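Folding Problem: From Residues to Backbone Shape
Fields: amino acid sequence; protein backbone structure tokens
RECORD BEGINS BELOW THIS LINE
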Amino acid sequence: MEGTLNMIGLGLAAIGPGIGIGLIFAAFVSGVARQPEAEGKLRSIAILGFVLAEQLFIIGVALAFVL
């Protein structure tokens, strides 16, 4: 039963980064729609935000398999 509970926790832990990534790219699309000339700068910031949000999920995966 312990392994099953870990996977349920992993699924719940995926909600936070999923919402965060959605908000990051929604802001990116909105920013590019308002100022297309700033796309390059906004893209690098959006990718950095994506990487930081995705790290939360990777840590959650590691903890789910370790515990």
In short: The first helix runs from residue 2 to 13.
